[in-house]
Specification:
The chain is built from two helices and eight strands, in the order H-E-H-E-E-E-E-E-E-E. By secondary structure, it is mainly beta. The protein has a single domain, classed as Immunoglobulin-like (Sandwich), CATH 2.60.40. The strands form two sheets. It has a five-stranded mixed β-sheet, with no helix packed on it. Strands 2-3-6 form a three-stranded antiparallel β-sheet, with no helix packed on it. A hairpin with a 2-residue loop joins strand 4 and strand 5. The termini are far apart. The protein binds fe (ii) ion. Fe (ii) ion (FE2) binds next to loops.
Length: 124
């Protein structure tokens, strides 16, 4: 019997969460509708020792479609580089989620994946 951790497998699982190309908006005033509709909108609430993140996809009222051909597949939350939450969506399911996190770094990142247009990120 062994209770050692399979480090290779653990690293592989974390690497599944790391994408080489992550899009984000640099200047919100210059953002295109294409950029706005993919970017996570995050409302943060302090809650006891942690925080509540209310996430939807799209900024400035521009929302992303959720059809068979074109949809948001997931929303993920990172505390620093640590993955701390994930919700999955399919066509017809509104991509909204609430996450309760115990923040341990000073950088929270929320990402979404569009099946056609890749990963989009908002940092708090
Ligand atoms: Fe898209």
């Amino acid at each position: 019997m062994s209770d050692t951790v399979d480090l290779d497998n653990a690293v592989a699982e974390v690497n599944d969460w790391v994408y080489e190309e992550v899009h984000s908006i640099e200047d919100i005033d210059a953002a295109t509708d294409f950029e706005l509709k993919h970017t996570p909108n995050v409302v943060l609430e302090e809650m006891g020792s942690g925080q509540l993140l209310r996430v939807s996809i799209g900024l400035k009222g521009i929302t992303h479609p959720q059809t068979e051909e074109h949809f948001i597949e997931w929303i993920r939350v990172f505390d620093g580089t640590e993955p701390v939450g994930e919700r999955l969506f399919g066509p017809g399911e509104e991509p909204v989620a609430v996450f309760e996190i115990e923040r341990s770094s000073n950088q929270i990142a929320v990402q979404s994946l569009c099946n056609l247009h890749g990963v989009w990120e908002a940092r708090l």
